[in-house]
Each structure stands twice: as C-alpha cells, then as structure tokens.
What does this fold into?
Amino acid sequence: MAFSTREVTIPAVGAQAAVEHLDAPPTFQQPKRIHPRRLLPPVKPGKQRDFHSLTPALDAFGAAAAPSSVDLVLDTNTPLTGPAAQSTASSVGEPSMAMNGQVVFYTGNWYAAVSTDAGKTFSYIDPATAFKQFDPPGGSFCCDQVVHYIPAIDTFVWLLQYGPSSGDNIQRLAFAKTADVAAKRWKLFDVSTALLGAKGTFLDFPDLAVGANCLYMTTNVFPDSGVGSAVLRIPFSGIASGNIVAKVFLDFDFNSFRVTQNCGSTAYFAAHRDSSTLAVFSWPEADDAPSQSLIGVSTWRGGNGYVSTLPDGRRWLDRVDPRITGATLAGDEVWFAWSVDKGSNGRAFPFVQIARIDAGDLTLLENINIFDLQSATAYAALNTNANDEVGISYALGGGPEFPSHMVGILTAPRRDVLAEAGERGPLDPNSRMGEWGDYLTVRRAYPRERLFAASGYTMEGKGNGSNRDVTPRFVIFGRAADVAAGSGV
It folds into this structure.
C-alpha cells in the first residue's frame, strides 16, 4: 500500500536562558481542563488465531540455575519525594526520563525535575511557567511530557503538550545540550496542527524515539470525531543547526503509533488493525514514505478499561486500553507491547502482551506474555541496551498487591525485580478517580549503555485523598556483571 508524506519546517520559537530550578515542585494548582478525555475507538475483533503464548508466569522466572552475574541488580533507586509532598503528581502519572552521565531530566504530569548527580538528588522546574513568554495566544502548558536523549549530537529532547482556551493546540519541542540542561538553557520549536496538515484537531499522547540519524515524534490527532496518528521524522542535522525540516506521515485509519526505540536507519512503528493483527510500518531513512505489513498475533481481548481489584476493594485499571505502550528494536527483532484484558490467552488477570517480530521479513517469532498468577500487569515500556537485551518497565497490581513498579530484562535469561511496592491505590472509580497510567519509560543509561534507566511511580504512606500525592521513582538497573563493571559501555 502506498502512503504519502509532507515536508515541513518546524518553526523556532525562542531560546530560553533562565529556566528556574526549584528546591521543590510548585504548589499544585488545579489546571484548567483543556479537553475531555477522548476514548479511543474500539479495536475491531480479529480472527481467532490457533497459537498462543507459552510464557511462564512471573513467579517462574529466576528459578532456573544461572550464574549470579546475570541476576538483575538495581544500581540506583531514587524516590522523587517533592511531587508527593506538593500534591503535583497524579495517579495518572505518565513519568518520563532520560540521562547522560551526571545529568538526568525527569518529567511527569505537572512537574519536571533535573539531577546533576546521576539521579541521587533532584531539583524541580515548573513546566507551566518555564517557557510562558513564548506561549501562543490563548495557549498554555497542559499535561503530557516526554523526555529523551540523542547521544549522536549530545542533545536532550523535552516534549511538552499544550492546550488552548479554544481551538487547536500545539506540542512544544525543547532541545538542550547536556551542559545546557544544567545551565537552564533550551531552544524551542512548536509543532502545530496546521503544520501537520490537520487544522481543527487536538494533539494528544505524544512520544519520542531515537534512530540512527533521526528523531521520531508521534502524536494522536483528534478531529471532531474519530482519531488519527502522526509520525514526524526529524533529522539530527536540523536539530543541531536550528533549521528543522521534517517529514510528516499522517494517517486516520490508525491511532497511537509507537516507533521502536533504538530503531537504527529504519523506523518501525505499529498500531492494531484488529484484535489479532498488527499493522507494522517500515520507514527507511532513504525513503520518503513508510510501507505497511499486516502481522497476525495471538488473539487478545481489550477495550476502554479493565477490571483489577486492589486489596482494599478499589480498582486501578479503569482507564487502561490496548494502545501500544512499548516498542524497541533488538538486533534484527522488533518488539511491540500493549495491555490486554483478562481472558486473553486464558489468563485470569489483565496482562501485557508482546509481539516479537523478525525485522527482515516482518513475520511473528513469538507471543510473549508478561503476567502474574495473582495480579494484573500493565503499561509496559521497552528499550534495548548495547548488548541487544530488551529492558522493560511496567506496573503490577491487584489481588494481594497495590500498584507497584517493576523492571526487568526480557531476553534470556529473563529476570524481573520489584523497584518499589505500592502501599495504596487510586480513589474509588465511582468518583471518576480510580485511574492509573498512561505510560512509563525505560532508556539506555548513557554512557553506561549496557544498563537501563527507568521511570515509574507508586502511592505511598497514608495519603491525602487527592490522587495527586504520588511518588515518582528513578531507577538504574542491569545485569549484576554490567553494574559491577562501572562507567562506559
């Protein structure tokens, strides 16, 4: 199937040299509701496949004898206590992070944080005021944020979602060298609906991925009815020069595109065609537009909201849906992850399903299930380290467990470890506050490229009843031998 793209110039907005770093996040102020949450259209039922995942449950992993050097070790595990104390981190936490050496940049719903000691301590930024003098008329910072690091040009990328008082919105790209992050200097570029060729829409659910020579930005695109998705291919050369010319692929047949992390010279991204078929797109850097392949996967169940009951009788997955939340390229394999409902593959609780695909001929190699025998799993993020191992950050909860943060390495020998156990869950769903999500992140822990860095969060302590007293967490993890090896790859 032939697709078309358009070439656009992303306009520079301004250089900001005075982003204020705070000892604590700003006191929470209820943001103006920019738009009602838009439910994604249901994924069409697919044909029943005659194959399923044979993945054993989480409890079984690590039981087999193996050298201790392959065990999973937490190198760093830092709670960011400020957002909980200031009630500025939501149970829909959406934490993202990236690092290079001593500098770590971390974001959530309504806060941003900077570390200059490799994630041991953090100062904070108010994203609502950081770039306010450059905000478009009637527009202001809203919510979703994503952070990444481009080692080829030593540049951090900070993507912020804005909302208008009326009309279309923008998503803002901020770029800074590692030294400039610490020095509080960022260069700004705005992506508007007009730039995408989609005036009259709302941009939501952004993401970033880094390839060999290009940065990839994705976003959902909501017109008055229905939903589409866009992918922007942004060459590093334009970011470095400040003259950004990008290719835009916009499609209204699919939503929630997710580009594979570390995708090299070909960007792979995917969305669901139906409940047993992935539409996988390949976009080589030399090509103007992507091509599509349809790949059968194990049939799954899912819609808008799954039931997972916590020890106190409350629920935490009323907001989840089957959009793809994790994607990575590992050697010559493409991995995509999404959350599915109970009953899929005969499982008793909601869980994460992963399709492992041959990148050469785009055929399915394996269906992987990330599941537990007593609890649900959801919101998996994926990435690949310098050893081509696949790392994962995900949430586990329900049954005997409150929502907790898990990390792991999925490639053999598989290991998972609890980063932090939650002590409570979100408020009663009948109050429209029993929600979790919408995404986590896992990155390479540059320059220690055999290690992973991840974001997650839990609700700890008694709580203040707001659903905004959430504790984000910054974690560096890897194989014991790689953690012991110290700095470098």
Residues 272 and 278 are 5 Å apart (CA to CA). The radius of gyration is 21 Å.
